[in-house]
């Protein structure tokens, strides 16, 4: 059995098995329903016959031309997921490769994705959004420390794994917000000890890239338009800060209940992204007035046109909104406050 190995001491070793055909897998696994399908492959449910353990199996057809984005996607996904482990990144148990296909046996996430959860709830209460973004921010911060840029961060690529044992302070199952503004509380009205009934698992690394050096700039236009950073839609060079913008779009969507854009065509959407200003939008948005000052401050630092002025993932994780402490990473920074004032003045 061959294994993926690396000189990087942070790398995980994932079993890598060469097979002649899919029929070999059927001797060990029983394949079931299709769980999903994306641009670079389909995901099936698989049951290991020996012990009944369930997996989500991503099957990717290998393209002959490695220069195309599709041709590189399966290599990107294998490279990242075989080298990096984090509690909030979907784990790979084994990789099987035939001449024409590649099979990633991943942990099964039984809670759907964040887009499904948002549709079910309509809108997240701040506490629920906070515990969700803490997990996602932790995964993203880990990736950026290891020079990995995801480049397709969105609600659909955040899988959820349910926590059946989650309990509130009085021992009951937690009640999570299904109506606007409803907080997670137990029967006595105390805050729930487990604000999230799920673990967030970041997935779909087909468009990801591992930078050779920490300050390397990228230039290819990839990702999902509604989550793309301004520098990408402007066809400018960009860095890992593009993921931070996408994180801001996810945060906005959770606490507001929708994306911050109203455009119906992709060309109009691109224009809207280029001209987007959170402060201006917030001034005429009723939902903004219902959010805490810390929440609005975090969004204003994530959704910044200039990548230089945009927060890093570590600054987001150290912010007052995430930590629930006053005086986060840049809220008390006078220079940052001056930049915010200047941006607001220019936009008037």
From TrEMBL:
Endoplasmic reticulum among keywords: no
Pfam families cross-referenced by the UniProt entry: Pkinase
Tagged with keyword Chaperone: no
Chain residues that bind ATP: 63
SMART domains: S_TKc
Molecular function terms from GO: ATP binding; protein serine/threonine kinase activity
Domain Protein kinase: 29-322
PROSITE patterns: PROTEIN_KINASE_ATP (PS00107), PROTEIN_KINASE_DOM (PS50011), PROTEIN_KINASE_ST (PS00108)
InterPro entries: Atg1-like, Kinase-like_dom_sf, Prot_kinase_dom, Protein_kinase_ATP_BS, Ser/Thr_kinase_AS
Key words of the record: ATP-binding, Kinase, Nucleotide-binding, Serine/threonine-protein kinase, Transferase
GO cellular component: autophagosome; cytosol; membrane; phagophore assembly site
One GO-annotated biological process of the protein: regulation of autophagy
Family: Belongs to the protein kinase superfamily.
Protein's name in the database: Protein kinase domain-containing protein
């Amino acid at each position: 059995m061959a294994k993926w190995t690396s000189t990087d001491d942070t790398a995980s070793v994932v079993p890598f098995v060469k097979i002649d055909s899919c029929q070999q897998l059927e001797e060990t696994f029983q394949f079931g329903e299709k769980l999903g399908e994306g641009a670079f492959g389909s995901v099936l449910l698989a049951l290991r016959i020996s012990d009944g353990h369930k997996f989500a199996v991503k099957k990717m057809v290998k393209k002959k031309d490695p220069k195309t984005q599709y041709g590189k996607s399966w290599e990107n996904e294998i490279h990242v997921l075989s080298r990096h482990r984090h509690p909030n990144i979907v784990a790979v148990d084994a990789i099987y490769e035939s001449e024409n296909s590649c099979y990633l046996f991943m942990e099964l996430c039984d809670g759907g994705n964040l887009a499904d959860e948002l549709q079910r709830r309509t809108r997240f209460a701040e506490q629920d959004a906070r515990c969700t973004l803490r997990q996602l921010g932790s995964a993203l911060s880990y990736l950026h420390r290891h020079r990995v840029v995801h480049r397709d961060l969105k609600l659909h690529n955040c899988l959820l794994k349910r926590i059946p044992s989650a309990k509130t302070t009085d021992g009951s199952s937690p009640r999570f917000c299904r109506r606007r503004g409803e907080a997670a509380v137990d029967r006595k009205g105390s805050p729930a000890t487990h604000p999230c009934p799920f673990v967030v698992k970041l997935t779909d690394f087909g468009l990801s890239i591992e930078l050779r050096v920490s300050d390397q700039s990228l230039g290819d236009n990839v990702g999902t338009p509604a989550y793309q950073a301004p520098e990408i839609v402007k066809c400018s060079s960009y860095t890992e800060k593009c993921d931070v913008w996408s994180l801001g779009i996810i945060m906005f969507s959770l606490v507001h209940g929708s994306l911050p854009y109203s455009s119906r065509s992709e060309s109009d959407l691109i224009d809207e992204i280029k001209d987007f200003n959170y402060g201006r939008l917030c001034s005429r948005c009723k939902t903004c007035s219902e959010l805490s000052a810390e929440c609005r401050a975090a969004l204003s630092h994530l959704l910044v046109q200039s990548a230089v002025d945009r927060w890093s993932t570590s600054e987001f994780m150290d912010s007052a909104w995430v930590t629930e402490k006053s005086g986060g990473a840049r809220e008390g920074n006078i220079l940052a406050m001056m930049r915010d004032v200047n941006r607001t003045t220019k936009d008037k």
